[in-house]
Amino acid sequence: MKETITIIKLNVDEKEVWRYTGHVIEVSEDKVTIEARFNKDDFLFQGLMLKRDDRFVETYFPGRWYNIYEIYDRDDGQRKAWYCNITKPAKIQDDQISYVDLALDLLVFPDGTQLVLDEDEFEALNLDQVVKLKALQGLEELKEHFNPRFSS
User: What pLDDT score was predicted for residue 1?
Assistant: First the structure.
């Protein structure tokens, strides 16, 4: 796998909606983790200030229905949140990773608060039942993944 890789976000019609590059930091059989810098202008999102050049540590899975972005502040390096996209399993190639975004997202704050986003957009996609079920199972898997981190 190349050191610099292109990430391509596709909509459900498999049309490209966003493209950027990142650097591969870990590769295994079941995942690839990259580091990228946020490439949009600063904006407030669900109480988080996302800033151009915030550091994103992104993990993609060829066998799971989601990806996970760990977001760090560009100025002080503090973790801001985890942002998880519900997606079809990632297609991982030597020089690029692509994924089909299914609109549904999970935002997890450092205190453990979880917020499911874009449920209305997900419902409007008119997905077949198998895809819909896999996506919802992916969301539940993510919720479980983050729960143990914050239990006492």
Answer: 82
